Amino acid sequence: xxxxxxxxxxxxxxxxxxxxxxxxxxxxxxxxxxxxxxxxxxxxxxxxxxxxxxxxxxxxxxxxxxxxxxxxxxxxxxxxxxxxxxxxxxxxxxxxxxxxxxxxxxxxxxxxxxxxxxxxxxxxxxxxxxxxxxxxxxxxxxxxxxxxxxxxxxxxxxxxxxxxxxxxxxxxxxxxxxxxxxxxxxxxxxxxxxxxxxxxxxxxxxxxxxxxxxxxxxxxxxxxxxxxxxxxxxxxxxxxxxxxxxxxxxxxxxxxxxxxxxxxxxxxxxxxxxxxxxxxxxxxxxxxxxxxxxxxxxxxxxxxxxxxxxxxxxxxxxxxxxxxxxxxxxxxxx
Length: 334
Prior knowledge:
mainly alpha, Hypothetical protein af1432, 61% helix
């Protein structure tokens, strides 16, 4: 008995005709024997979950650098919230939950230490540029497993690459993650901003609350219900026009009051300086990078990209430790 084939048949029977069915996947970068238990997207989900880059997200900034409190989101908890939202939507729409979960769990694997501040810093100094969505694909294609990569399916890689606002994934499952990412960060970043005393619930403009609710929980619930009701039995993932407009206004409100807030972002300049200092140091001291990264250079990868690979993979704490080790005299410690 081949369990995987039975599960694939169940997908064909139970999922929407608009779903990405596992047996119809475009395949992997390198051919490999299929698993006799798990369909391809479930297998991708498991590979991401067991990767080093997934575990490192627990010590990477979401929005607030070094927050004073245990309940602020990290890049990992953001990822889990995206995954949960996406699975809820996919299940309601009878789309492929395994594919949705794999994309959601992998969409931020390429994020830098210190969140978007680290991404901006590397993008400014690397001649090849730096984008976390492209880096996430590079992580799963090349950097994981000592240069072998995870060899994921085309659909998962496409969803990871195109999860940002300007992207358009080829599957409905990828489009669910794209929406779920925005829904998650608007919801939890506002929750964290309220926790930090930067915002109050009453600060949200009335033109927004009248459409989608008066609390972060109400708004999260409204977004998901609206997305499901407007996408049900359709070959598209979409919100109603009033809710889409409210989401855009709420996102703009968050940029003005949180993402560009001096108090919330007071340490970002230092974080960018730290990242760029590390980049310049390792650019001229390649031999001090781990062997796995030197092997990539030996295989023909550009030195500047590999330095970004190394720094981008660091956690906040590890990047600070490396900076102190290189630039702060040992006699100044403790």
